[in-house]
From TrEMBL:
SUPFAM superfamilies: ACT-like, Periplasmic binding protein-like II. Residues 57-235 form the Prephenate dehydratase domain. Its main location: plastid. The lineage of its organism: Eukaryota, Viridiplantae, Streptophyta, Embryophyta, Tracheophyta. This is Arogenate dehydratase. It comes from Oldenlandia corymbosa var. corymbosa. One of its GO terms (biological process) is L-phenylalanine biosynthetic process. One of its GO terms (cellular component) is chloroplast stroma. InterPro entries: ACT-like_dom_sf, ACT_dom, Chor_mutase/pphenate_deHydtase, Preph_deHydtase, Preph_deHydtase_CS.
């Protein structure tokens, strides 16, 4: 209980972010597919017994064959997948108790951060309860009989397109158009369903099997170690422990007193306690994007405009450790808000 309190005591109000929580536009934002055991009905929206017995329901982006589905399966092998059309629908499915967990990507070793999910972490009040690292191997998929020289267009999720950018250019030249799609597997399904003979999809070899496409080229990613990191989200926090390798994710904004030096002070609070940082991300402070300050230059008072940020930091310690609690107590002195997004076991 004391641990739970120490975790929650740092979850201060993020009203300063001014970001409003939106609601699921309709249940159709969750994709009904042949793989879903049941079509979701109005009754599923109310809290109650789990609709699939005791199995965990895991919301993820994309139709069957997406990488998010693979990450959800790696985290929870015997779960019921709940495909969603957008990342936000996966967050909302957990909030509305349609799903027990959501598995969403936050960063890729080639493509970098998936900013949308950082913003959603702040807008929604879910807890990070775990992480999954997935090796992502992309293939170039087309209808049977289609050859590379027939292709005029390649469809995929923007993250996948960016992970294959150099390989795509070197193999197909600059004239093949890249077009963004909801998910990699969704792109494969679209090519197959519309019988597109001048269009390929970048997706997994598993998606090729599911939608009857051929693999024109394997290993399309620009680096053979391509990894995506996913977060597992739940309504309740994971109770942190010691004795296992833990990561803690926090989000904060500097307070008015600190000004531009806030980041240095926050990072020192971890450095002085020998706590390693594994990730830092900054996003615009949407409710106060610019701060105007008076600055002296050659004895003349001028005004300077500073961009304001929300910072996300992951550090390698559990909230059950005193050094992590002390670091956050110090960080709190420099911030207008500070929230612990989760303290969870590392995927190693
Ligand atoms: O499109 C998919 O298949 C997804 O699951 C999304 C996603 C992403 O957004 O990063 C997941 C993993 C890969 O990095 C590429 C795409």
């Amino acid at each position: 209980m004391a641990l739970m309190q120490s975790l929650l005591s740092f979850s201060s109000s993020s009203s300063s972010s001014g970001l409003k929580m939106s609601t699921l536009k309709s249940v159709t934002d969750l994709i009904p597919t042949h793989n879903l055991p049941n079509w979701l009905t109005h009754d599923d929206l109310s809290p109650g017994p789990k609709i699939h017995g005791t199995k965990l329901r895991v919301a993820h982006l994309g139709v069957p064959g997406s990488y998010s589905e693979a990450a959800a399966g790696k985290a929870y092998p015997n779960s019921v997948p709940l495909p969603c059309k957008q990342f936000e629908a996966a967050f909302e499915a957990v909030e509305l108790r349609i799903a027990d967990r959501a598995v969403v990507p936050v960063e890729n070793s080639l493509g970098g951060s998936i900013h949308e999910n950082y913003d959603l972490l702040l807008r929604h009040r879910l807890h990070i309860v775990g992480e999954v690292l997935l090796r992502v191997r992309h293939s170039l998929l087309a209808l049977p009989g289609v050859r590379k020289e027939h292709l005029r267009r390649v469809l995929s999720h923007p993250q996948a397109l960016s992970q294959c950018e150099h390989t795509l250019t070197s193999q197909m030249g600059p004239n093949v158009r890249r077009e963004a799609f909801d998910s990699t597997a969704g792109a494969a399904e679209f090519v197959a369903a519309n019988n597109l003979r001048d269009t390929a999809a970048i997706a997994s070899a598993h998606a090729a099997e599911l939608y009857g496409l051929q693999v024109l080229e394997d290993g399309m990613e620009d680096d053979s170690g391509n990894l995506t990191r996913f977060l597992i989200l739940a309504r309740e926090p994971f109770i942190p422990r010691t004795g296992r390798r833990f990561k803690t994710s926090i989000v904060f904004a500097g307070n008015d007193r600190e000004g531009p030096g806030v980041l240095f002070k926050v990072l020192s609070a971890f450095g002085l306690r020998n706590i390693g940082l594994t990730k830092i991300e900054s996003r615009p402070h949407r409710s106060r994007p610019i701060r105007v300050l008076d600055v002296a230059e050659d004895d003349i008072l001028r005004t300077a405009k500073y961009f304001e940020y929300i910072f996300y930091v992951d550090f390698e310690a559990s909230m059950a450790e005193v050094r992590a609690q002390n670091a956050l107590a110090e960080v709190q002195e420099f911030t207008s808000f500070l929230r612990v997004l989760g303290s969870y076991p590392m995927d190693i």
